[in-house]
Every structure is written in C-alpha cells, then in structure tokens.
Amino acid sequence: MTNTFPDGFIWGTGTSAYQVEGAWNEDGKVPSIWDTAFHTGLRTPDGTSGDRAIDQYHRLDEDLDLLQRLGAGAHRFSVAWPRIVSDATGSVNEAGLDYYERLVDGLLARGIAPALNLYHWDTPQWMEDLGGMMTRDFSEHFGHLAAVVGERLGDRVAQWFTMNEPTHPSLGAYVAGFLPPARREGQAGLASVHNLLLAHGRAILALRSAGVAGDIGTILSMNGASPATSHADDIAAAERAEYFDGRLFLDPMLGRGHLPELLAALGDTVRDGDLDTIAQRMDVLGVNWYSTYSIAAPERAAAHLAELPPRAAMFAGFAPVTAPLGFTIVPAPGLPWGGAHRQLTPGGLRDALDWLTATYPDHPDVVITENGVGYADAPDATGVVNDERRIRYLSWAIQEVADAIAGGARVRGYHAWSSHDNLQYMAGFTQRFGLIHVDPETLVRTPKASFEWYRQVVRSSAVPDAVEQQPVGDHLGIDVRGVHNARGIGGLETMDGRRVLDGLFFRTAGLHGITDDGRRTLTLLGVDTILDLRGTTEVTQSPDAIEGARIMHLPLHEPSDPEAGLFVGAAADESGVSGLGSIYREIVQTRGREITQGLRAITAAQGAVLAHCTAGKDRTGVFVAILLAALGVRDVDIVRTYAESGDLLGTGFRAEVSALMTLSSPDGSPILDADLDDLLVSPSELIEGVLDVIRHDHGTVTEYLRVHGFSPDDLGALRQKLVA
C-alpha cells in the first residue's frame, strides 16, 4: 500500500452553480426548475434556498482567493444554463457569459485550472415548459448551450464535462419524481434517459465544432452495489443493481448501445443514428463516489425500509422504480451514516474503480470529480470548525484512490466535494460538505480543519496518517474485584452519530469469584438487576448471590458437561473448526424469547443491569451483540467489543478454565495450551456470523426481535433509555 500519488496528479475542488451562486433573477438570469420548485412550495428544513445560496455571484473574488490559499491545482464548477440562454429561441444573455468569463479568468490568474461542467440539474423553466427531458428538443437546446459556452471560453478551460450525474435529473425527476420537476412518469419517464444521453453526445459535437482546447468528457455517479445480507436473493439483487446503475449510461456512452431492457422500454424513442451521436469519443471520465449502495431483493426489502431514517427517504421513492428491475436500495446494516442519505462504506471507492477497469478496459482516463461527506458542522466558541469526521472519511477515501492507482487504475485527478458549504438542494444547509464553512445568514466564510488538512494533501501529494477517534465511555472497562471481563457499553457510537449512555448496562464473566470489594462496586454502580445467561445446572451449582439485586435466569445454552460449563462443546473438532460458531447459531435460532426477555428487563430496571455467563464472551457476547445492534451501534464496534474479550479475560481466568477442564477430563490429563487458546479467543468472524445469520433469515435485527415478540414500541423504549 502506498499513500503517495504519481507526478502530475491533479488535486482540485468542486461546486455547482445553483448550490453556490444565488442571484437567481439578476443580470438577465431566468428561472430554473429549482427556482420554480422553491417558489411554489418546496421547502428545506432550515428555510434556505438557491435564491441566495452562498451568494458566490457577488463574492466571487473572495471565494477565488480562498481557493488560491488552499493551493489545489484545479476547480470544477458548473454554468447555470438559465443564466446563459434566456428563452426557447436561443437568446444569449451576455451578462451571464461575462460572469463565467470572470470566473474562468479569475481561476487562471490564481494558478487554478478551470474544469467546466455544462449541466448540474438546473434546467431552465422555459425548457421544461417545452417538455423538458421528455422531448428530443432537450438535446437540441442543450447542444446550443454547449456551442455558446464553448465559443466564449473554449481557449481557456482545461476540462469540459457535459453533465453531472445524469441518473438524478432523469430517473429521480421523471421516473420516480422526487426531484424537480417531480414528474412521476413511471416507465414512460425512461425516455428522459435517452434524451439526456442524446444531449451529452450533441454537446460533445458542439464543443469540438467550437474548437475547445481542453479535454472533453462527462461525470457519472459510480456507486457500486453490495448485498444487504448474505441471502442468495439479496446477492442476486445486488448484481442486478450493479448492472443497471453502473451500465445504464456508460454502455451507450462508450459505444455498446442501450441495455436491452432499456431499449425494449424505449420503443420508437430511439431513432437511426442516435446511438452513434451518443457514443462520441471522450478524453476524460469524471467519477463521483460517496458510498456504496446496499441492496436487497424487493420481496425482502420491507424489513430494511421499515427502519428508513428521514435522511434516506429517497430510498422509498426509488423502490417502486427499481423493484420491477429486481432490486431495492436499502440502508446498509450496521454502517454509520455520513452526509445526507449516504452511509460510510470503506472499500467502496476502490471497488468502484476496479469494477470500471474490469468492465470497460478501454475507458477514458478517470478524474474523481466528487467525493466527500456532509455533517452539520458548526464553529465552536472560539470560531474554529473542527471537522475531524470529514478528515477521517477523506483519509480512507483518498487512500483507496492511491491503492487503485497502484493496482493499475488510470486515475489522474481528485476533486474534493466541496470547496465551500453549499445548498444541498432539499436538505438546505443541514448537511455541509465544504472544506470552508459558510454561515447562510451572515455569509461569513471560515476554513475548517479539513481545509488545512487537504492543503497538506495538495502540497505533499500524499495522504497523511489518519487521525484516529479516541474511545470514551465505560465500554473501555470497569474494575469489579474478583470478576473478569468487566465493562459497560457506554460510549459506543450509533450509526446516526449518537452514543450509548454510561452506567446503565454492564457485562462480565461469572460472579463466582467476586470479592466484598467487588460487591460494593456493584452497589456503587447501581446494579439492581442481574441477567444470568448460564445453563440451569451451572446456576444450581454456583448461584449468584448479590444482595439487593434481582436475579433473572435466562439460559441461552445448556452445556453438555455442566462441570466444564460451555467449554467442552466449544472445543475445536478434529478439523480444527471451533464449536463456538454452531453454539452461537443455536442461541440465535432457539433462544429468541430469552433474549427479548432480557432486553425488556433492561428497559424496566430502575437501576443498572449486569449480564453475565461464565466467561462473559460467548452467551453474553451473543446477547450483547444483539442488544447493541438493536440500539443501532455500528457493526465495527459490535465486533470489536466482542473481540476484546479474549484479551480482557486475562491469565487468571485462563488458569481457572485450565483447572476446570483438567477436572472434567476422564483421565485427569491437563488441557493442551493450543486447545485452551482455541477456547478463550474471541475471533471477529464468530460474532460477524451471529449478525449474518440473523440478517440472512430476517433481514434486520429489528425484524428478528419483532418475530420474537419485541415490538417497535419495545425497541423505542430501549433506545430511549440507553442512547442519547
């Protein structure tokens, strides 16, 4: 793995016209479909709109100076079609062209190469009034835009892109209808895909006819698709999603023609010569990547969509569109949410680049044209915006680009999205992607910590060491004398960025050796309920005796040899495979009632709850994994918490188990160290298997609990108590 980039690699940033310019009706600009939507009922959560956005139209020099300070060698921006072409007759607004000329010349004067995108979803309202993308006229008018801009700026722009993420203004606006102009045309709306592709081809022809000097290409969102579970139906659905999402636009653009399914739906929309027009040679391919889509089979999607957070409402909007194609986009189980509707999926950017290379070996050279993450960043009391989460995201994402290049991917540039906080369309400024914070009220610009971090990346052309998040909370451990593997779950982070509260739930190994000091500790911790997860015979032989605590016996597994507890059944067989995996699956599949009883006890307890078995890693490990998943804790933390047991049990517990196993041996022979190692380790794959079997059989942990009588109200009460 290398963290450096080749000589000549281009670092940049990006914005788009509607999201930053403002001045929606100034100097001859006419309304776009987004202006119309916001002026006729569409509202953002914070009341902002593109009427002003960040007012870059009036603050251009200030923003260009900030880009110069950042030091990146390129800046990708878009022109606003309705600022340049005023009506259906093709009237050109010279004031609009003058603005973009100032922008291009201002970038060049500061040593920044302009990368111009002709279209970022802001169709003029006059074009929509003519039928929008549902008419072939769209491509003719778009070709005119390309010609006008190319003739004015063609000698100064380094890279030209015809459009940004055409899936959104076609499928999102004309098929599903959740983006302006919100025309839910269903299958008929697929004509917008063809007409937008035709516009792409005609724009390239117009730019070449204008003699532009820079490279020409387009920008596509290349998400990738991963099955939500290991179920065969979800795996097949993910393959279908990757087929459609990845190839819908790329196949015709790169000369392979329309996908057969689309061609059949389009009928006579496609005319002779159209596919040749679409398949114009491209010099560069812009790739936008934020996260990988999680995919479920339509018939299995309901459990996932039942937990859809408001930020991901678009998944529900897409579901009726994609279901007939054999897939549904759903939240990825156990992965944290980043900005907007996106989850953090490390490894996905590398996978997307590898997929592109494998599927289209002769593709144009790639520039990453958008990559970033959005949070509700705000300055602290001193005015500093410390966006460490963004730095962590960019660290692994940019590292994946370096790894892909080392593996042979032809990537020659990277643009962080975005240089400035901007209007995130319907989310307003509630999700901020910028390296520069912008206050939507005062419009004050404040470079964030990520600005300085990215500045270092640009200067060194290398990825600095990642800034690790420091763990906090009682999950790090508590001291209960005479008890091994003692800790809480407080401080663990949920997928939506909240944390589990300290002091309400603890987990330990057996309490048989607890000292008087240990008992006093439990009293001080407020433990008033103990969930004993051992087998019946184990409890009979060594019952818990904690004064003032209610003891609930919830046996999750009955060992075949009660004298040795769980350990005999867990020993590896002759093939070296641990028996723990089958025991864990048995717990999941047969002890759902006991597990939900334990969860209700946690909610009902007046004080803290402690759960234990013998080692605190197997039966307790399964119970805690399901509890944490129910709370929405990230899979990575669930797995890490389980895996820590092997180290936390320590040498004292190892000696206890060794003596116990020797006593249970028919001939009294001691257990071999290698066998003891096998019993006491807590490998990640075991608890990953628990989550996998639940999701394979039920889709989500929530659905698993519901099947076993734990209602949505029960789950809500549990989360309300333990998460803040």
From TrEMBL:
This is beta-glucosidase. It is an enzyme of class 3 (hydrolase). The active site is at residue 370. GO terms for molecular function: beta-glucosidase activity; phosphoprotein phosphatase activity. Residues 593-638 form the Tyrosine specific protein phosphatases domain. The keyword Hydrolase applies. Its EC number is 3.2.1.21. Keywords: Glycosidase, Hydrolase. It comes from Agreia pratensis. Coiled coil: none annotated. GO terms for biological process: carbohydrate metabolic process. It holds the Pfam family Y_phosphatase3. The keyword Transmembrane helix does not apply. Belongs to the glycosyl hydrolase 1 family. InterPro entries: GH, GH_1_N_CS, Glyco_hydro_1, Glyco_hydro_1_AS, Prot-tyrosine_phosphatase-like, Tyr/Ser_Pase_IphP-type, Tyr_Pase_dom.
